[in-house]
Amino acid sequence: MSSRQEEKERRKRERQEREAAEKAKAARNKRMRMVLGGVLGLGAVAALVIVLVVVVLGGDSDPSDEVPASAAAIPAQKESDPKKAAELAGCTYEAKVPNEGAGHEEKEFKPTDYKQNPPTSGPHFPQWYEDGIYGPGDTPELGKLVHTLEHGRIDIQYKPGTPANTVAQLETLYNEMDGGHHLLLFQNETGMDAAVAATAWDASLKCKTMNPQVFDAIRAFRAEHIDKGPEIVP
After folding, report:
1. Are 22 and 168 in contact (CB under 8 A)?
2. Least confident stretch, 60-69, 116-125, 160-169
3. Cα separation of 169 and 172, whole Å?
4. 171-192 average pLDDT score
5. Helices H, strands E: what count in the chain?
6. Distance between CA 187 and CA 145 in Å, rounded?
7. Region 63-91: what's the mean pLDDT?
8. Binning pLDDT at 50, 70 and 90, where does residue 63 land?
9. Which value, in Å, is the radius of gyration of the alpha carbons in the chain?
């Protein structure tokens, strides 16, 4: 496994690359608006304007450009009680899940190694992952994720196939909550039934469907359970 410093550097590079891509797209859009401003008054070139709009603004084939990271708007918070927020969102909230242990083992952990899906405690790998947003295809290893819960982290996860706009909204939520302090966001790879879930040490929130109330459910869950693991690591 890469050292913690290498992990930090990797995520830093990824953030810088995303930011650079977004800035470049913004500059391209600005140039296009300037072009459109100069030709809109000329009826003879109206067809050309339409073509330019489609090609320049809609022709990018990179799916990551379709919804800029953390650019999707989300509803403001209305409910802060974790139980009430979960009920409004149609989520299952368990404030106290039976503990499965906290031993360290150097092995490849699988969902079947745990009674809960996604896990909320149990044996795990000696190393762990740093806070951050991990894109699809870059989901941290399960045994190292469980270790983050022991350190008081909140793991926010969504099932494979989640729409890009929903992922972008979850990234907005992640950054809204104290800049992602002691949080991880990633695509779930345990085959969970929930569309979206949040886990903490001995606690879970599982939402069968994604809806606007889920954001409050996650906010309230995070406020209630963050930094409640048996080991607190800054």
Report:
1. no
2. 60-69
3. 5
4. 96
5. 7, 6
6. 12
7. 82
8. very low
9. 21
Q: In what order do the strands lie in the sheet with 154-158?
A: 91-94, 203-207, 196-200, 154-158, 183-187, 132-133
- Name the nearest CA neighbour of 140 among 202, 198, 185: 185
Q: Taking Cα atoms as reference points, which of 73, 68, 54, 59 lies closest to residue 21?
A: 68
Lowest pLDDT segment from 8-12, 104-108, 162-166: 8-12
Tell me if 55 sits within 8 A of 190, measured CB to CB.
no
Q: Are 172 and 69 in contact (CB under 8 A)?
A: no
Q: What's the rounded Cα separation, in Å, for the pair 67 and 160?
A: 17
Q: Name residue 172's amino acid.
A: T
Q: What is the pLDDT of residues 21-34, one digit of tens each?
A: 566 565 555 555 55
Task: Take residue 151 and report the two structure tokens written for it.
Answer: 């350190």
Among 97, 213, 202, 218, which Cα is nearest to 156's?
Answer: 218
Cis, peptide link before residue 63, omega less than 30° from 0: no
Q: What is the pLDDT of residues 91-111, one digit of tens each?
A: 999 999 999 999 999 999 999
The amino acid sitting at 7 is E
Locate 114 and state its tokens: 């745990």
157 DSSP β-pair partners? 186, 197
Structure tokens at 191: 């085959």
The model carries a pTM of: 0.70
Cα→Cα distances 59→32, 63, 146, 175, Å:
13, 11, 41, 29
In residues, how long is the chain?
234
Encoding tokens for residue 167?
A: 């992922």
Any idea what DSSP says for residue 102? -
